[in-house]
Amino acid sequence: MHLGDKDLITVPFVQNTLERFAETDDVFTLEFAKSAVLILLYEGSQPPRPDDAFLDNLSPYSCSNCIYQKSNPAEKWLEGPYFLQGKELHQCWRLYPDHLSAFTITTIPDDQNDHRFVPLGVTSDDGADLAVAVPSRLYFPQDANKPLNGLRVSVKDNYHLAGTVTTLGNRSYGKYYGVQNITSAYVERLIEVGCVVLGKTKLSSFAGTEVPPKGPVDYFPPFSPRADLYQSPSGSSIGAGCAIAGYGWMDLALGTDTTGSTRAPAASNGVWALRPTWGALSMEGIVPSVEEFDTVGLMARDVETLHNLYKVTGPEKSLKESLPDRILFPTDWFPTGNQKHQEMLDAFTIHLEKYLAITRTEISLSETWAQTGPEGEKETPLRGYLQKVGYNINMWNGYHNFADFRDGYAAKYGEAPYISPVSRAKWENGSKITVEELDEAVRRRKVFADWIHEQVIGEAHKTIMVVPYGSPEPKYRDEAPPAGGNSGPSSYNPNFFATILGLPKVIVPVGQIPFVSKVTKRTEYLPAVAGLIGEKGMDEILLQLSKDALAKAGCPTKVLPGRLAFNTDDEMLVASAGGAEHENSESVKL
Predict the structure, then answer these.
(1) 3-class secondary-structure state, position 428
(2) Domains of the chain by range and CATH?
(3) Please, what is the Cα angle at 321 between 590 and 532, to 5 degrees?
(4) SUPFAM superfamilies of this UniProt entry (predicted)?
(5) What do you get for the CA distance between the two ends of the chain, in Å?
(6) Is the backbone of residue 375 left (phi > 0), alpha (psi -120 to 50) or beta?
(7) Are 248 and 100 contacting, i.e. CB atoms less than 8 angstroms apart?
(8) For residues 590 and 344, what is the distance between their CA atoms, to the nearest angstrom?
(9) Count of C-beta atoms within a 10 Å radius of residue 8
(10) Which three-class secondary structure state does DSSP give residue 526?
């Protein structure tokens, strides 16, 4: 305990301090104060004196002894619980079970190097799960030099952490490349501003789109904490999405996003997420999938946490500082096929309209393309024009980027590496795409991007776009998703729109929808989200706007960990859809 300039140590002061510890920290409990030694740090020339019968009156804590220690800034004493072993004090870290199987490996920092890590190698008490170690939050006071001090973050297993293996969701890959000696640049930045790295979370192999029951194969896929606990976790940042949605003791999860690898798990698990402007955050030290599309992916339960993270670690100056003056509402993708979801998306858009004091502008991208697209290009309908743009770029790079791994593994071990069926099919498709087909996809992408910026966004406005994302309907982890064709998804959809244009996109939890689970035989709730896209550099504005518009409307700006994203009995949620009546009283809407 830090005493400052106190002259007299009183029982209430100590009791209040211990109770504050217990209220603000999940590592410290009042059990620590039973038969404990109190170490009181003072700053004056003389130690403060205790009042009469000080220790005797500390009931119910029964502290056994009290030590006065003059504060020495060089020793960096931090308040909180410690273990006393001989003459040495050791920090207390709590072990949480990874009961969702979200982590590939859990870690602690190397004692000699904060940017290097040591595998924890510990299980839960019953031995069923990995254990995740978290330090006391009391060790991380507010610090202007470390604005994210003490925030706990997981890291997707395609980021390098020095001292650990990067598996990329494939055992052969981890075996071939072994222990890494570098830590990714973005993780190093997080450490510099005070974040605590907890370990590496699972992903679909090679950051692809595997979901149960078809995969991942090498590392058992994690469980989504939402609804009946048997919904698909989505990919590829599967561990990140499940962990941040399920573990209240975590603050942030790092993923990556190529064609939806962060956005899809965020939608399925009902958490906030940001796909940043392409190139805004460093990808150094992260295994590339498709460099033209790859970005860091950020997830949190609270938009305030996500906003603070980007303010601290994003570009020093936002490219778009003022609020938007136009909301595009693309009729290409509205209305959705789910009426309840559509009502929530409408309500979210109304909140934006009221906050910005503007009215949405409905637009048909396909019709606008037919009218204003470049000559020689617009003659092809937009859906067909974009059909293979994202697919060919994604598949070609997804295959060729791992040539060194395939060839090197075969040369070193005399056999081909194991590749899961989903990744193998993706590579087979990628190997068939010609350079000419790739070049045409790249050309069409540029034509489309130029047209969007000239004819849709324009220089006269600061534009945002509301789009649907995900489908809040049951997707059980024991049911294979519908088979798709070899042509892959068209880029004419709200998912690929931000990807191929390099635009920032925020996933906004907007409610939850009831359904009767085949597993639990009772009503459960699936999270529903909206997508909010902005111009390049509007990342921070999108987060700030989402937070402020929802807060002004009386809507929650954070979600709960566990089976429910929102409380079902929260009248504020039910009543905040602009006065709209609900067809189903169990439906929760913004």
Answers:
(1) helix
(2) 8-91 (no CATH), 94-313 (3.90.1300.10), 326-589 (no CATH)
(3) 30
(4) Amidase signature (AS) enzymes
(5) 44
(6) beta
(7) no
(8) 6
(9) 11
(10) strand
